[in-house]
Design a protein that fits this description.
Low-confidence stretches: 1-7, 9-20, 25-65, 67-79, 81-178
Number of strands: 0
Helix content: 40-55%
Radius of gyration: 33 Å
Protein name: Annexin
GO molecular function: calcium ion binding; calcium-dependent phospholipid binding; phosphatidylserine binding
Pfam families: Annexin
CATH topology of the domain at 346-422: Annexin V, domain 1
Number of helices: 22
GO cellular component, one term: nucleus
CATH architecture of the domain at 346-422: Orthogonal Bundle
CATH superfamily of the domain at 346-422: Annexin
Largest sheet: none
Order of helices and strands: HHHHHHHHHHHHHHHHHHHHHH
Shape: elongated
Structural class: mainly alpha
Mean pLDDT: 77
Distance between the termini: 65 Å
Family: Belongs to the annexin family.
């Protein structure tokens, strides 16, 4: 074995003139090890004389082992700074390897036990400091230090008042969601050019009559980031406002759908929230739909646009138009501060499930504030674990408990949040079905969902729709709408299942 800074020597380390000066990060003198000697490691009284083949076994030193000099009891304890990198040896980064959350990496070996080449358990501390090639330390298959074994139920947090959120090992671990790739129905059109596209739009609207089919074919085959630049390109090319021209040429729901498609997602959401709040009535379902399904970054962008466009903060607008616990729920959601970590602490999930049970089913009256605090602040993966624990704890689905304990807008709001967190495509499939069932169609809801989800999860929504209602979303839209409006909606739907 050779060390950086130490030229290889046959037969060990013979005495050298001047010796080997101490190297930064190397092996400092330690009690029980190699005594310090002036200038390096020359032979010294009481030290280790050079011997053929290296250092002979010494009490407290490094006994010869296959594969190098692993630490032994009584040898060199880990020193600050770790061991210096060694060619062919076991390098370690500064400070050694700290314990890693989530347990030890899997290694070959039946049942997760260490392979025969690993040192005895008593040497674990030293082995952790010198793992080969920077690999994570520890024995494979085991849990993180201080965490329960994965096959047993998670123990309560060490300090329940300050739970280690997001650092536990689930007692019933869920398989991570498998990325299914792009799940939208509208994709970027290869080689799209906004300057050429606006020529098509101008030609479709110029003169007597309007070529709606040309507009449908163009907009139905462009993604949002390809449609939005058309507004600026149209004004640059023709000195006219595209939105104004579209309004003057189109009518009804087809006009509303086209205009919605010409806006960025955040601008469209801000406009929909404004429409839901202003006027005599309030579209509470729209408020909940947008605020419960958007990410933190999206909600903050919507709030910034709302303030810039309408001169009033989104929170103030909501507060002035709603009341009670429903107002608190919406204000909490519009902060955009939900935890977005993917890790789940099963011990905290159990605690939260108990808190929800104590605030509802196991109490005279209902503590809506506790529901608000948990449903609006916890991460979505964590809340899915909470809902599962709640079901196991009291034998009732969290949705049914909310319906039993609450009423009115706050009930609708809480249920919508729960459904959206459980399975977003299922939530939107239900929203679409409700918009089209019965006499009349809630066209604003239909337009909003078809436009906003067409580049996110429309393929998943179609699957859930077919599963829940026995006919495709495409078929339902075809039977419930008509004309150019239907044609463009079907473009957003992307096909039948």
């Amino acid at each position: 074995m050779s060390y950086p800074g130490y030229p290889p020597q046959s037969g060990g380390y013979p005495p050298q003139a001047g010796g080997y000066p101490p190297q930064q990060g190397a092996y400092p003198p330690q009690a029980g090890g190699y005594p310090p000697a002036a200038g390096g490691y020359p032979p010294a009284a009481g030290g280790y004389p050079p011997a053929a083949g290296g250092y002979p076994p010494q009490a407290g030193g490094y006994p010869p082992q296959a594969g190098g000099y692993p630490p032994a009891a009584g040898g060199y304890p880990p020193a600050a700074g770790g061991y210096a990198p060694q060619a062919g040896g076991y390098p370690a980064p500064a400070g050694g390897f700290p314990p890693q959350a989530g347990g030890y990496p899997q290694q070959p070996g039946a049942g997760g036990y260490p392979s025969p080449s690993m040192p005895p358990a008593g040497e674990l501390q030293d082995v952790n400091s010198i793992q080969q090639g920077g690999a994570q330390q520890g024995y494979p298959g085991g849990p993180a230090p201080g965490q329960p074994m994965p096959s047993y139920p998670g123990a309560p947090a060490t300090n329940p008042s300050m739970p280690g959120y997001g650092s536990g090992v689930p007692s019933n671990p869920q398989a991570p969601a498998i990325s299914k790739g792009y799940r939208g129905s509208i994709k970027d059109f290869p080689g799209a050019d906004p300057l050429r596209d606006v020529e098509v739009l101008r030609k479709a609207m110029k003169g007597f009559g309007t070529d709606e089919n040309a507009i449908i074919e163009l907009l139905g085959n462009r993604s949002n980031k390809q449609r939005v630049p058309m507004v600026a390109a149209y004004k640059t090319t023709y000195g006219k406002d595209l939105v104004h021209d579209l309004k003057s040429e189109l009518t009804g729901n087809f006009e509303k759908l086209v205009l919605a498609m010409m806006m960025s997602p955040a601008h469209f959401d801000a406009a929909e929230l404004r429409e839901a709040i202003k006027g005599a009535g309030t579209d509470e379902a729209c408020l909940i739909e947008i605020l419960s399904s958007r990410s933190n970054a999206e909600i903050r962008e919507i709030a910034a646009i709302y303030k810039a466009e309408y001169g009033k903060s989104l929170e103030d607008a909501i507060s002035g138009d709603t009341s009670g616990h429903f107002r608190r729920l919406l204000v909490s959601l519009c902060q955009g501060n939900r935890d977005e970590r993917e890790t789940v602490d099963i011990a905290l999930a159990k605690q939260d499930a108990q808190k929800l049970y104590a605030a509802g089913e196991n109490k005279v009256g209902t503590d809506e504030s506790q529901f608000n605090a948990i449903l609006c602040a916890r991460s979505k993966p964590h809340l899915r674990a909470v809902f599962q624990e709640y079901q196991q704890m009291c034998g009732r689905d969290i949705e049914k408990s909310i319906c039993r304990e609450m009423s009115g807008n706050v009930e609708d709001g809480m249920v919508a949040v729960v459904r959206c967190i459980k399975n977003t495509p299922v939530y939107f499939a239900k929203r679409l079905h409700k918009a089209m069932e019965g006499a009349g169609t809630k066209d604003r809801t239909l337009i909003r969902i078809m436009v906003s989800r067409s580049e996110i999860d429309m393929l998943d929504i179609r699957q859930e729709y077919l599963k829940a209602y026995g006919k495709s979303l495409y078929t339902h839209i075809s039977g419930d709408t008509s004309g150019d409006y239907k044609k463009l909606l079907l473009k957003l739907c992307g096909g039948s299942d």
